[in-house]
Amino acid sequence: MYSFILGAGNGLINDYLNKKFPWSEATTKRAVISIVSILIANTVMVYFCNYMNFVVFQKAATTEEYFSGKYGFVNWFTINIALLISAFLHAKGFMEELKKTSKKEVVEQKLIAKSANAQFESLKNQLDPHFLFNSLNVLSSLIDENPKQAQKFTASMSKIYRYVLEQKDKELVTVEDELEFAKTYCDLLKTRFEDSVDFVFDVKKDDYRRFVVPLSLQLLLENCIKHNFATSSKPLVIKIFSENDTLCIENNLQVREQIKESSGIGLSNIVQRYSLLTKRNVFIEKSEDYFKVKLPVLSSRPNAVSILPETKNESYEKAQKRVKEIKSFYGNLISYCLIIPFLIIVNIMTSPGDLWFIYPMLGWGIGLAAHGMGVFGVGKKWEDKKIREILEKQNKR
């Protein structure tokens, strides 16, 4: 009777709570509900079992005697045994749920990482043919207009294309390197358009060691030329300058009619690559007089800026640490449920007039409660908040 009622009863409670309040979705709520439910349920089941045993089966006491407190110690001792059984069942359920959740998170993160990498590689692979196609179009025009300039353009293009091949596989490059490349590319554009296009560079020296996505300036310069007409009487003025932690590319609007629809590779490519690297956005401003694109300038290459989320090893280490915390708490709880009843028995047998077991029971109980609150999330939000604040301060330095 004891085995069936206490074992099956606690098992049913644990299964029901697993369905209604899974550990992975509401850890703190589940812990509180579990503690309250097992205390109430085990008290009721123990009183019922002892009543059936002593009153119904053995007829050792009447109902009035049973509820008068005569069997208080027996009930208290049996309740501790029942709580020990329940603690094992809940610990087993938690471990199984944690194991499933950890495996699921690792698989999801691996899929996210693979997807992000594939997307990033796809975006980078657009740059190579895109640049080559546009450069060959310029060269084709120069061959008819100015063969000597075409030869010079070909030599310069090989130098620039080398940079494209070197940088396109990088996530970020320094502003200094990107500016040097942009100036060389502007020289090519000057070769073709001469005084129809003017370039103004005004970037702060402090920004030179910061970072932008590679080939972003070249793609935006291409857009300026592609979507605007430029003549000697109405030159196209393109400015590249610093503004509030951004690198700005601005041109006066002289919109030309598009013969064919734009492929949209340039600007969308930059926006997507930035979205994979940082939470900061690329801003676009347009008025009747000018068109401006603001590229976020990143201070460093922090780990948080990586396109790869948490790795499998990091997830496993976190899960392993969490399991150790839970095992420590349940080990503490089981020790409490075993040792305190033993101390009570020793106390009653040796000196029933002096109930000294109350002091270790209360002291250890308070410590156990504090341990449980720490493990199951009470106060964790405050700790996590402080950790995030410290990390953000360190990243800003």
UniProtKB/TrEMBL annotation:
Domain 2TM span(s) in chain numbering: 317-391
Regions that span the bilayer: 31-53, 73-91, 329-350, 356-378
Keyword Kinase set for record: yes
Record domain Signal transduction histidine kinase internal region: where: 118-196
Signal peptide: none
GO molecular function: phosphorelay sensor kinase activity
Keywords in alphabetical order: Kinase, Membrane, Transferase, Transmembrane, Transmembrane helix
Pfam family of the protein (one): His_kinase
InterPro entries per the UniProt record, alphabetical: 2TM_dom, Bact_2-comp_sensor_kinase, Sig_transdc_His_kin_internal
Record keyword Kinase present: yes
Cellular compartments per GO CC: membrane
Protein name: Histidine kinase
Organism of this sequence: Chryseobacterium hagamense
Lineage, top ranks: Bacteria, Pseudomonadati, Bacteroidota, Flavobacteriia, Flavobacteriales
